[in-house]
TrEMBL record:
Keyword Hydrolase: yes
Top-rank lineage group of the source organism: Bacteria
Keyword Hydrolase included in the entry's annotation: yes
Organism: Segniliparus rugosus (strain ATCC BAA-974 / DSM 45345 / CCUG 50838 / CIP 108380 / JCM 13579 / CDC 945)
Highest classification ranks of the organism: Bacteria, Bacillati, Actinomycetota, Actinomycetes, Mycobacteriales
Protein name stated in the entry: HAD hydrolase, family IB
Record-stated family: Belongs to the HAD-like hydrolase superfamily. SerB family.
Transmembrane feature ranges: 242-264
SUPFAM superfamilies, A to Z: HAD-like
InterPro entries listed in its UniProt record: HAD-like_SerB, HAD-like_sf, HAD_hydro_SerB1, HAD_sf
Keywords from the UniProt entry: Hydrolase, Magnesium, Membrane, Metal-binding, Transmembrane, Transmembrane helix
CDD domains: HAD_PGPPase
GO molecular function, one term: metal ion binding
Length: 269
């Protein structure tokens, strides 16, 4: 029997902002970028949150990021992301997304994050969210530094290429699998599976989803402070009590996600 998977876009689907642009300030504080680059990234982040990004905007964003990181030390970038990951990413995560991830994992589905952002950013975020796999843009590296070129752009049809490669490698059934994304640029990704869902869709994707009778979800709630406090408290408690709290939290998320999952299934049937 083939394995099923749930493929999630990252930006504006699992988190509220652009993952690539979110680390602008920590990169500035470490001396990787100047103040002008941070301001430019902040403005781009504002536009991204306001209206998403079409193909032209994504191409401009790719060029901006590639130019900005030229000459950066890859190990230093990984270190900055690792040190600031929770402070930067946790406030942006949609709680509805974590519930849905929990529901898919409870059913034995592989959870895969597919993003146009760089691998060095996407991979640790995927681990933080409990994903089984991540696929992202891969920058060209020479002598441990970014050259400003791109080896693989995980965008548009590139996402489908990555999904198909993973499906062949892991024995995944794309026809029975799920995908969640927010942008019209992710139409190929959504169309590549049997169970697509538009999440926080831009105007063009909402129209396309309506024509295809695809479900539409709205994610707006960030992960609660209480959830993060419970997680930190569990780490400080004796092993038995910590496990109990962790299990209770996982059960709550799984139940909430199951309700969403069942609702989607009923709508498709």
């Amino acid at each position: 029997m083939s394995q099923l998977a749930a493929f999630f876009d990252l930006d504006r689907t699992l988190i509220a902002k652009s993952s690539s642009l979110a680390f602008g300030r920590p990169f500035y504080e470490q001396g990787l970028v100047g103040r002008r680059a941070v301001l430019k990234s902040s403005y781009a982040q504002f536009l991204f949150q306001l209206s998403g990004a079409d193909h032209q905007q994504m191409d401009r964003l790719r060029k901006h990021l590639a130019d900005m990181c030229t000459g950066w030390d890859v190990a230093e970038v990984r270190a900055v992301v690792a040190e600031t990951l929770r402070d930067i990413v946790e406030p942006m995560v949609f709680s509805e997304a974590t519930e849905l991830i929990a529901a898919h994992k409870a059913r034995g589905h592989r959870v895969v994050i597919v993003s146009a952002s760089g691998q060095e950013v996407v991979e640790p975020i995927a681990k933080l969210l409990g994903a089984d796999h991540s696929m992202a843009t891969q920058m060209t590296v020479k002598d441990g530094k970014y050259t400003g070129e791109v080896d693989f752009y995980c965008f548009g049809e590139g996402k489908v290429e990555a999904m198909e490669a993973l499906a062949q490698q892991e024995g995944l059934d794309l026809a029975g699998s799920y995908a969640y994304a927010d942008s019209i640029t992710d139409l190929p990704m959504l169309a590549a599976v049997g169970n697509p869902t538009a999440v926080n869709p831009d105007r063009a994707l909402r129209k396309a989803a309506g024509k295809r009778n695809w479900p539409v979800l709205s994610f707006s709630r960030p992960v609660s402070l209480r959830a993060r406090i419970l997680s930190r408290t569990a780490q400080q408690l004796p092993k038995g009590r910590a496990a109990l709290i962790s299990a209770a939290g996982s059960l709550t998320a799984a139940v909430a996600g199951t309700i969403t999952y069942i609702a989607l299934t009923r709508k498709r049937s």
